[in-house]
Input
Amino acid sequence: MQTPQKIAVVGSGLVGTLLAIYLKKLGHIVHVYDRSPDIRTVEFSGRSINLVMSNRGWKTLQDIGLEDEIKKIGIQVDKRGIHLKDGTFTTQFYGKEGESIFSLSRGVLNRKMIDLAEEAGAEFFFNRKIWDVSLANASLYEGETEQGEWKELKYDIVFGADGAFSRVRHRMQRQSQFDYAQEFMKIGYKELHIPANEDGTHKIDKNSLHIWPRGNFMLMGLANLDGSFTCTLFMPFEGENSFENLKDEKTLVDFFAEYFPDTKDVIPDLVEDFFRNPTSYLVMTKCFPWTHSDKVALIGDSAHAIVPFYGHGMNAGFEDITTLNEMILKYGDDWKTIFSEYQKSRKPNADAIAELSRRNFEEMSSKTADPKFLLQKKIEKWFSDKHPEKWMPLYSRVTFSLQPYAEALAIGDFQNKIMEEIMQFPDISHKWDSPEVEEKIIQLLNVK
Amino acid sequence: MQTPQKIAVVGSGLVGTLLAIYLKKLGHIVHVYDRSPDIRTVEFSGRSINLVMSNRGWKTLQDIGLEDEIKKIGIQVDKRGIHLKDGTFTTQFYGKEGESIFSLSRGVLNRKMIDLAEEAGAEFFFNRKIWDVSLANASLYEGETEQGEWKELKYDIVFGADGAFSRVRHRMQRQSQFDYAQEFMKIGYKELHIPANEDGTHKIDKNSLHIWPRGNFMLMGLANLDGSFTCTLFMPFEGENSFENLKDEKTLVDFFAEYFPDTKDVIPDLVEDFFRNPTSYLVMTKCFPWTHSDKVALIGDSAHAIVPFYGHGMNAGFEDITTLNEMILKYGDDWKTIFSEYQKSRKPNADAIAELSRRNFEEMSSKTADPKFLLQKKIEKWFSDKHPEKWMPLYSRVTFSLQPYAEALAIGDFQNKIMEEIMQFPDISHKWDSPEVEEKIIQLLNVK
Output
């Protein structure tokens, strides 16, 4: 057991809140600060992408006894539902039977988590702006404005769970020997909305993650509990098919009629949603180190903000907590070692899920509409069903296993090389499930 | 001609000062701010690597009529002087006869440049701390401390020439869509000193850039006008041969006796220098965009801090000025276009010299002691002498030509692939200048 410490968590998002629950259960005094109002008191919509929870996230909730409670507010999603331009709708299962991810509304989940953290005894301080932190002695500096007067708040340990533009990291960035990178994507996103039917049911299959793949842009939709869907249009800011070019009502309506004809009946407020909701940016950030002595640690997006195309931002952040907790159980009161082992263990995995997420945009937005890619997936699934001990597809490794992301990425790259060779196999489209192909894959697996 | 503007340059380093001269000659009001005291009034030593000026830097000085004046304070360096561990000393000429770079002391050059800028009419404000800038209207915010009261200083245009940790860039970093990366090297450096002989002459050849290549660490030395040499020890912070391990006098003296035996007589104050001078960090930074509308632009290290191993930090910064000036001459008062064309033209070249500089550590610290590498260089030189229109070695492209860095890098990579093949040629160490090798190179050049 640990000696109780006075701990501040900066940021009341999903990771900060779940971390607060863990720290309370360990016996610490926990104060959570957020510059924004309490999300339970404000409307939350207009700039969110729905979340998906997969095994890594569930593992972290399970370890603290919250899995069942959260599952109640999620919707099982076991497949991609692909809407082609010609109106065809096809599905691709994500894993084996019974394997699924869960669609969760960010607002709903975050409110629930704050309730749970308060029940656990964490204290929340909303509308409190933390501008700076002293790394040497874990003090926070709070004030109305950045340039105004600040008050010092003393703690034993500070966690920066304050997201991609973390102020805690901002202080660390100004230390020597701190590596940091931020990169904005050329693709932005906008939230759209499919309302529920009058009887509260969903207008389209609620157990699919819907994708309208259109090459360098796509629409996607994830179900909410209330029968609605949160949709997200991902598209370049500039260029031929871009946000820049969808300037007026007519252009927008024509564009959707051309590229997403089957959304006409299900997105009734397209024009209003589109011009009211902001066009949001996507940013990737990387940094190292994540911790300072036994005083300060980054966790979640503040340490590794990724793009949403694998649905792993929250899962990776929750897995940070699992690793941190492992180190706490292992090293007791030695916070210096806890922090250094935590960052050492997580950094390569955070880099790997960042890379996987970046790559997955292309898979979602164009490959899912490519017959050759679909055949490749079919072969992988067929082989994996026959030889589960020899082949787990990359998506399953990342989403349904707890294998470290870095290992999943490395094995995925190896498997992909094999599949590239297999796709060159003569007459592969007919021979795809032949003994020769099976044997060839086994042979290639053995030349590691 | 341009309409006179009120322009602030933040930073009185080499690039800021030369930029001020250019802007004065164009008729603007120019104020240069620096948080440090006037370098002309303080001792400058202990943490500097000597500079080398090559053709790109000279071109920028020449265009404004300052080349001759600055050449007076430089020392021609036409070769590498390589000190092997066994005491052998060999040389490698950098280019053709008459081609050389110039060694310059940073302090001497910077003082001279400030004098010249003042003569040109630029006003300097030292000990003035600029904490922030308003991008929308080119105001600077100045104050004693970051958290204290600030004064607004209004300008038409602001240049951030304030180095790798630029405050001007710091403000841009907090804009959306600003890509930024900083990476600290695992190698640090420390300044050492070879004093002049009593009669003011140099103790070792002043026209060589001296290198003591020792694998993952090295010592180098560049001559000063006063007969002394500024030496720099580059070494990992941690590990077997590292700064961390050179903790006491005995370890240090033994280490130098083992690895740099021929420095014993020429670095008399080794122990004092070593423990007095700081161990400095090396950082690479990249960012984009470099400019904001027609109001603010980054230039030099603030836009692209690189490692010193190609000797091009200053040259690249001066070349920024050449490009900026080209755009000014082309677009007159249209500063928005000047800035956007300037950054568009320079960004790929800044990325290229960053990459070239990073790679050159290995070339300097280990390849210069590798017979295979020396043979490769000899073949390149032989072929280039015979076919100057077909082959200019990479070093010459970067240092003695004005070809854009990005082109030099691309062609260098192509040439390197050819040389890799040539080095596989049977019995290459004897056949290196044979007609077959000559023909093979020509053949490989043609399969582009």
Q: What stands out?
A: The longest strand of chain B covers residues 187-194. The first helix of chain B runs from residue 14 to 25. The mean pLDDT of chain B is 95. Residues 185-281 of chain B form one domain.
